[in-house]
Design goal:
single chain; 295 residues; six-stranded parallel beta sheet; 44% helix; 12% strand
């Protein structure tokens, strides 16, 4: 009798199902609840199949990434910096897709900072061109997969064609419920906080809000990320040990994961390592860890 050949895709499904059956979390109520929450939002989420050793409740809801190292990646290979940015843009789809597979709800990528305007004109033009190409190339895919798209940052200074593409992709994906992809473009955290403070000051001056009504929740609602959960995990590639004016308010209690891998080489393997690292942490939010055996 000849070998039985599984239909296309069946092998990966069988492997995933076997992993779930062998999972130590199969009968864990917290795991079952977390999986149900993920599946209700994104039926394709399969954290046990992708990371069988990680408790589903330990998967971060929101992952923010500082995509660093494009220029150094290119320099190592004798390429111009623009080539590094091009390969970096190519890495985005795979990472966003794998985040969805893991059940991650929100991915926020640091694409272009306010400080990046200091770079050579040729490089800035290349970055804006890549941004436009990415938006045009991913628009239908984001809509098909049910991923909502948002941009964080100031609009001033961004070329009109890029703004038009941002607005179009934001509109056509507004109904997406499977996940959210945020690109931080023309973004700086201090500028974001300043913009929020200015808006609140105008509201107070107009008599629409009293200063005593302003609390952390009110302030958070004035930030570019209003309506989104704060990042649970901040990943930085290329080994730099700083947050670079990125989501300063929102990452107050985020776990940090730094990898020496340059962004163009960052993929599912590196993402899995970051999530495993995160899942192994104890998040106390300023409190103390409960003694072993306590309720």
């Amino acid at each position: 009798m000849g070998d039985h050949v599984l239909p296309s895709g069946a092998a990966s499904r069988t492997k995933s199902e076997t992993a779930k059956q062998a999972s130590p979390f199969a009968n864990d109520p917290a795991a079952i609840e977390a999986l149900a929450r993920m599946k209700a939002r994104n039926p394709d989420a399969d954290p046990l199949g992708r990371l069988p050793g990680v408790h589903p409740a330990s998967i971060p809801r929101h992952v923010a990434i500082i995509m660093d190292g494009n220029g150094r990646w290119a320099k190592q290979r004798g390429f111009p910096r623009e080539m590094g940015h091009r390969h970096g843009a190519m890495a985005v789809r795979g990472v966003v897709e794998e985040c969805g597979n893991l059940g991650i709800e929100v991915v926020t990528l640091y694409s272009f900072s306010l400080e990046n305007w200091k770079r050579p004109k040729q490089e800035i033009e290349a970055l804006m061109g890549l941004c436009l190409a990415y938006l045009e190339g991913e628009e239908s895919e984001l809509k098909r997969k049910g991923i909502r798209f948002r941009v964080l940052g100031r609009r001033e200074g961004i070329p009109a064609p890029v703004l038009e593409a941002i607005d179009r992709v934001t509109e056509v994906t507004a109904g997406g419920t499977r996940g959210t992809l945020c690109l931080a473009i023309n973004y700086g955290a201090r500028a974001e906080i300043t913009d929020a403070a200015r808006w609140l000051a105008r509201e107070v001056k107009a008599g629409r809000i009293h200063p005593d009504q302003i609390d952390e929740t009110t302030f958070s609602g004035c930030l570019y990320t209003a309506g989104l959960p704060d990042p649970d995990l901040l990943i930085r590639t290329a080994g730099e040990m700083r947050v670079s004016n990125y989501l300063l308010w929102q990452i107050s209690y985020a776990e940090l994961h730094v990898t020496s891998v340059y962004w163009p080489d960052f993929g599912a393997k590196e993402l899995h390592a970051a999530v495993r690292d995160y899942a192994g942490r104890t998040r106390r939010f300023g409190g103390v860890e409960a003694p072993e055996g306590s309720p």
